Here is the input.
Amino acid sequence: MSFDFTGKRVLVAGGSRGIGRAIALNFAAAGAQVGICARGAASLEAARADIARHGRPVHAMACDLADAASIAAWVPAAAQALGGVDVLVNNASGFGMGDDEAGWAAGVSVDLMAMVRCSHAALPWLQKAGAADGASVIHISSISAFRPSTRSAPYAAVKAAMNSYTGSQAAMLCRQGIRVNAIAPGSIEFPGGLWEQRRTDNPTLYERTLKSIPFGRMGTPDEIAEVALFLASRHARWMTGQVLTVDGGQLLGA
Here is the structure.
């Protein structure tokens, strides 16, 4: 199975690190023009430079995905720079862990509402792409959505809401040629990421989680990115409203 996204325009919300960066790089390697956003200027520029090495146009813009006005500025700017939008990937997370006002605010504003706002902002361009050759929206959820959590209740709840909205959004947009799917990753480790930090800060949790994965290791961002490319490709042209679990059997071993 090969992927060719030559001529396609892909926006990745939260595309400077980890899973988002891997998705952006893999789309660029497959021929796509890519637009990314993130809050951190240094990581955003580093990701932009890496994506540009594939020789395709790339648009990078600072954006606070918790802020509606910032999203309303980024999406049109990226769409105009790239000449449209064929694929939207909503990857950002506020990682709201604590069952308090701050935890819920982070999860609702970034995980949930950024997904909704980016989708709404990109819709005019997605509709044009859908009418011509099909368009795709991909949400990055989590296996946390599938089970109760005493450690990260807000995170689990907003990811469950994302899964629910994936189906609703797919039903609303399918007749416009726009497919909507989600990926629910298991524990993914990368430099500077949450699980790398926990390896040092909370080794007991890290080891317990590692032992719960039948494959015996954490996942990598590229393993999620490759599924994102599949979902956006013609190989998945008969799929919409689905949430694909990519976790090395982690849910099975819990």
In short: Residues 101-132 form the longest helix (32 residues).
